[in-house]
Amino acid sequence: MKPETTEPAEKRRIPRRHPRVRLVTQVEGTSLGRTENISVGGVLIYTRETFEPKTGVIVRFTLPSSRPIKAQGVVVHSKPGVCMGIQFLQLKDDDLKAIEEFVREACSPQATREETPK
């Protein structure tokens, strides 16, 4: 009998998902990037224009449902010229629910099957 293996526990306070739908994100009006992963806690953005950790930012993006999201955030980590992780500090309740729904739908087995090339 093989010993049972377990995955390491999720260390994040709010688990992130990697939806296959890409979001174009604007930060502070000067940085455009592609959102790699998202949760109600924040986003990871690939962009050439990164900011230092602890920098306050305003993040704007539009979900595929055409719902625009605007959130205050702070840069929590940054790879200069590559990417930065932004933690949301304030999200309206409706925006939070819209992000939750987007992540749930984008990570569903149905969405994954639909995007898999045949």
Summed up:
18% of the residues lie in helices and 39% in strands. It contains two helices and six strands; from the N terminus they run ββββββαα.
Question: Could you walk me through the main structural features you see in this protein, from its secondary elements to its overall organization?
Answer:
This protein has one domain: Thrombin, subunit H (Beta Barrel), CATH 2.40.10.220. It has helices spanning 93-106, 109-115; strands spanning 23-27, 31-39, 42-46, 56-62, 68-79, 83-90. The longest helix has 14 residues, at 93-106. The model is unreliable at 1-10 and 112-118 (pLDDT under 50). It is globular and about 35 Å long. A hairpin with a 2-residue loop joins strand 2 (31-39) and strand 3. It is α+β, with helices and mostly antiparallel strands. Strands 1-2-3-6-5-4 form a 6-stranded antiparallel barrel. Helix content is 18%, strand content 39%.
Average predicted confidence as pLDDT = 76
Order of helices and strands: EEEEEEHH
Tell me about the biggest sheet? 6 strands, antiparallel, barrel
Counting DSSP E segments of at least 2 residues, the number of strands comes to: 6
Estimated share of beta-strand residues: 35-45%
Largest sheet, order of strands side by side? 1-2-3-6-5-4
How many distinct folded domains?
1
Separate helix tally? 2
Main structural class: alpha+beta
* CATH topology description: Thrombin, subunit H
Sum up the overall morphology in one term: globular
* Rg over alpha carbons: 16 Å
Helix fraction by DSSP (H/I, runs of at least 4): 10-25%
CATH-scheme architecture:
Beta Barrel
Kindly report how far apart the N and C termini lie: 37 Å
User: Would you identify the CATH H-level superfamily?
Assistant: predicted glycosyltransferase like domains
